[in-house]
Write a structure and sequence with these properties.
By secondary structure, the protein is α+β, with helices and mostly antiparallel strands. The protein contains 8 helices and 7 strands. A 5-stranded mixed beta sheet has the order 2-4-5-7-6. A two-stranded antiparallel ribbon has the order 1-3. β6 (297-301) and β7 form a beta hairpin. The longest helix is centred in the first third of the chain and has 56 residues, at 64-119. It is elongated and about 120 Å long.
């Protein structure tokens, strides 16, 4: 009887020991599989909340905790990118305001100075009159262009710029844009030309005024950053698609700047050094106009090797 009791006691102890060990192992596994990952997620979430958006939670499991960690990492990546873009945009806007202030003050001051000089006695000299009036008109047009760009970019940002498309022939427009550019730069050592590959007409579904704005901007930029050499606008039709290119032999654009060249307010460092002023709005506006024509504008360029801006438009069909 005593032996049986001792046997039962030993069995109870063994069962208790095995149960305790089992519970301990389960507790360790629970801590490893659940508690530790949850603590990692909590610590990572706290760091992200405190603004450490580069934080990533290192959990590779495929369960619910792993999915939560992956979601938190994606959130951190998005926040990091958004904050970076906001800082970049704030810096660009600050530069933009500085440029706009300068661009507004310079022509206004020039016009005021010319008028003040005329008022103080230069009115009797016809040659001086004509010179000052021409310079005042040039500065007035500069102001008009700046205000137009500001209004356009504002309408783009608010979604108010609506572009109506209709059947238009771009050949006369291209010829006019090139003729105007040639006349404005006849004293410069720059070959400005138009290549249309024997096309008698260039019919597209587009907005003539807005496309004029694009071509004017691309040609003006090409001339502005090309001291000598050539600026060529070309167009070619293939399989119902018309490709437009503006190619120059100017200063070119470095790879990093080329990725941002169509951003609002952006101007390359090289462009700032060579040409003072400018708001960096023209290409952003052109990009929006071309996208409204169901296409995209792109650039191929490298420093000191010129640039080529191009986009396609579908040929008009009934």
């Amino acid at each position: 009887m005593v032996g049986f009791v001792l046997y039962q006691s030993e069995s109870s102890i063994n069962i208790f020991f095995i149960t305790a060990v089992g519970l301990g192992i389960i507790a360790l596994l629970v801590d490893r599989w659940i508690n530790v990952p949850i603590r990692k997620v909590a610590e990572g979430a706290k760091k992200i909340k405190d603004g450490n958006f580069e934080t990533r939670i290192e959990i590779s499991s495929k369960d619910e905790i792993g999915e939560l960690a992956e979601t938190m990492n994606e959130l951190a990546t998005t926040l990091e990118s958004d904050i970076s873009n906001m800082k970049k945009m704030e810096q660009v806007r600050t530069e933009f305001l500085s440029n706009v202030t300068h661009e507004l003050k310079t022509p206004i001051a020039s016009i005021a100075g010319y008028l003040e000089t005329l008022k103080d006695g230069a009115l009797t000299d016809n040659d001086v009159n004509r010179t000052f009036i021409k310079r005042s008109l040039k500065n007035a047009k500069r102001l008009e262009a700046l205000v137009t760009d500001l209004v356009d970019i504002s309408r783009i940002e608010t979604g108010e710029m609506e572009i109506q498309l209709e059947k238009v022939d771009l050949k006369p427009l291209l010829e006019e844009v090139i003729n105007d550019a040639q006349q404005r730069n006849e004293k410069h050592e720059l070959d400005i030309s138009l290549e249309m590959n024997n096309q008698k007409e260039i019919i597209v579904n587009g907005n003539l005024d807005r496309l004029r704005q694009v071509f004017d901007n691309l040609i003006s930029n090409a001339i502005r950053y090309t001291v000598n050499g050539s600026v060529v606008m070309s167009t070619e039709k293939n399989n119902g698609v018309i490709e437009f290119k503006v190619q120059d032999t100017g200063i070119g654009i470095d790879a990093e700047s080329a990725e941002r060249i169509f951003e609002r307010f952006f101007r390359t460092d090289r462009a700032r050094q060579i040409v003072r002023g400018g708001t960096g709005l023209g290409l952003a506006i052109s990009k929006h106009i071309i996208e409204a024509h169901n296409s995209n504008i792109s650039v191929e360029s490298s420093e000191k090797n010129g640039s080529t801006f191009s986009f396609n438009l579908k040929s008009y069909t009934n």
